[in-house]
UniProtKB/TrEMBL annotation:
Keywords: Electron transport, Heme, Iron, Metal-binding, Periplasm, Signal, Transport. Its main location: periplasm. Coiled coil: none annotated. SUPFAM superfamilies: Cytochrome c. It is found in: Periplasm. Residues 25-103, 134-225 form the Cytochrome c domain. This is Cytochrome c4.
């Protein structure tokens, strides 16, 4: 019995090691194939431009799903479609493995954008800090509790307490993502410009969110690590 258990343990260990080496190989190949992505998403998947998403640390399955969506047209993007069109299934998996294996960078402390009303009196630094703190607190409450009166679901239910996502369900990791990109994404779900998610779930949630809700929760998520 002991010998059988030992044999099984060794077999499992070898299988695990083989899987690890295979994953590492995929990531290495993916790094080379992702070179053309660096201009927008950063060399390691940490985009420095707020309008382009960070890909580092995202779940491999979710990244692969989005690349397939760009390729088959179910997710509309004039910029990404031609890039994804030239990728076969193996290249998609390798690129996704590369980005998934990298660590997402934390964002600098957020600042509120300048207001559109030029005639409004200038705000003091203390007023700006108080406004930002209130916005992030609003976003935190919405992320964790939703809004019952408007039937806005809590983000935590699908994306986790630390915005780490849910790998088996293909719900993406969100923490440390750029606030500007999150605002655009939620707005696209709200307007229907983006709809490639399970049962159009995000559209149904986002349509019940105000622009202030979207801004607040995006700013809050951007501060999560």
């Amino acid at each position: 019995m002991t010998r059988k258990l030992l044999t099984v343990s060794i077999s499992l260990a070898l299988a695990s090691a083989s899987g690890y080496v295979h994953a590492q190989g995929n990531a290495s190949a993916g790094k080379a194939k992702a070179a053309s992505c660096a201009g927008c998403h950063g060399e390691d998947g940490n985009s420095t431009m707020p309008s382009f998403p960070k890909l580092a640390g995202q779940h491999q399955g979710y990244l692969a799903k989005q690349l397939h969506a760009f390729k088959n047209g179910s997710r509309n993007s004039p910029m990404m479609a031609p890039l994804a069109a030239g990728l076969d299934d193996q290249a998609i998996q390798e690129i996704a493995a590369y980005y998934a294996g990298n660590k997402i960078s934390a964002n600098p402390a957020p600042t509120l954008p300048a207001g559109d009303d030029d005639d409004a009196p200038a705000k003091t630094e203390e007023q700006k800090k108080a406004e930002l703190a209130a916005l992030i607190a609003q976003g935190s409450d919405l992320y964790r509790n939703g809004n019952l009166s408007r039937e806005v679901s809590a983000c935590v239910a699908c994306h986790g307490p630390y915005a780490e996502g849910n790998k088996p369900a293909s719900f993406p990791s969100l923490h440390s993502q750029h606030a500007d990109y999150l605002i655009k994404t939620l707005t696209d779900f709200k307007t229907g410009a983006r709809s490639n998610n399970r049962e159009n779930m995000m559209h149904m949630i986002a349509t019940k969110m105000t622009d202030e809700d979207i801004k607040a929760v995006s700013y809050y998520i951007s501060t999560m690590k």
